[in-house]
Amino acid sequence: MKKVLIPTKLDPMARTVLEEHGGYHVVQDEEKSLDELIEAHSDTYVLIVRSERITKEVIDSLPSLKVIIRAGAGYNTIDTKYARQKGIDVMNTPGANANAVVELAIAMMLADARHVIKADPSVRSGQWEKKKFMGRELAGKTIGVMGLGAIGKLLVRRLRGFDVRVLGYDPVLGGDRARDLGVELVEIPTLFEQSDYVSLHIPENDQTRNMIDASLLGLMKVGATLINTSRSGVINEEDLRRIKPERKLRFLNDVYPKDEAGPKSVADIADVMLPHLGASTREANVNAARRAAEQLIEYDEKGISSYVVNRDIPAGLDEAFGELSNTLARLCRHALGREVPLKLIETSFYGSLKPYSKWLILPITAALNKDFDRTMDYAAALLYLKEMGVEYIDRETDESKGYNNSITIDMTGHVSRDEFRHASVRGTVAEGNLMISRINDFDKLYFEPKGHCVVFTYRDRPGVLGRIAASIAGEGINIDDVRNPHNTKADQSLALLKVNKAVPRDLVDRIAQDIEAHLAFHVEL
Length: 525
Ligand code: 3PG
Prior knowledge:
Structural class: alpha/beta
Distance between the termini: 23 Å
Bound molecules: 3-phosphoglyceric acid
Number of domains: 3
Number of helices: 17
Helix content: 25-40%
Largest sheet: 7 strands, parallel
Mean pLDDT: 93
Strand content: 15-25%
CATH topology of the largest domain: Alpha-Beta Plaits
Shape: elongated
């Protein structure tokens, strides 16, 4: 059992998902201090946290720690560099609370523009200050969105109905994506110069700390509004204090150097102050909790590290190809026969994947053995395979085949001293979905590898698919999808069925006997 420690107010969904899955012992406690919990649970394998500070000291007190999951977006509270040194992966759950943050940013803009916060106590105290609370409308204004990640992009979409012009800055988002989104990409100074509202959606890191300084704030329109729901450290507070009265800026703030009670240094310059409420909605809390648990399961079972933020995933590689490598390797291992000792793995990475082959061997190795430590590097993965008695060859690819980005994995095993068995699978990523295109000699499958699948090959003759389907249905298992290609040269057929639950081993064996299958296996992909 892997111990998961959740020392924070996170929806019980994380615990439910992990316990229902099995294999995890979850301890959740938001009452005791982090120090107390660490002392009592020094065998923790995973920490799931919100804004708790995960320092060197915390990491050193947990010798079994392998993963830290930040159930949320910002991970500036975690010493990610030290975690890396210790071989600990840090993940976040980007997008899980995007809607909550976006709705809060809009709520702050509207509340301030219409004096909602001050007008309420005024009326309660018996006053009628209608003239004083003359407001401003959002329609027709220009909104600058700094940072177009999950939150910034969603803000652009949500703003569509307000009839505003939206400017955006992002260091990686391309022009085509921006056009589809309906945002005009501009350089940072232009965004500050032309916007009536500037909303910050950037992470705090070495590049962004103090980035919003006098040189940008001084460009803002007189009377413009700055909204910060990201991190306090991205604004140079002293510069804002100096420029704010000059430019008559409004400053609406949700974030502080520390999430805790006590006086706030920005109190004199913030027109609205909230206690870091961005992600504090029931919905976001459930989403982040579910995502943290699901990401952990995928990480443990498939070696999927798409959300790891402190490991060098090569820039430019679509992470779906990591998942594809893992899925193809598991499928290939089943096609070879789990009981057949594996001797050789050969891979071909086509299209623009070749430069990433060293990185892609990690999810392939993780598919072969659950105990494989994904924090290893290429050399260590090769050594691991060698110790398992497996030779690895990354083949030169034949570009004349004209394949797009796609992967072929072949495996060879010893059935006996002189008898070898061979399996080969191919796949790609199409429209964001994994696709299996070939299993052995059965081509053009275009099958999405998700959930329970059962595979048979047999001598081609009428009626076999019907017999397989009847046997499966006879056990109350539903068939969701089928591929049944024929290989006329070899006089063979393949039946690949996607089913709604696991097909028990004895049923696979019975069907295999009944149809005289050459290959028969169930796999959960
Ligand atoms: C985030 O980074 O996800 C938000 O700032 C929310 O943080 P919280 O989980 O501590 O509320």
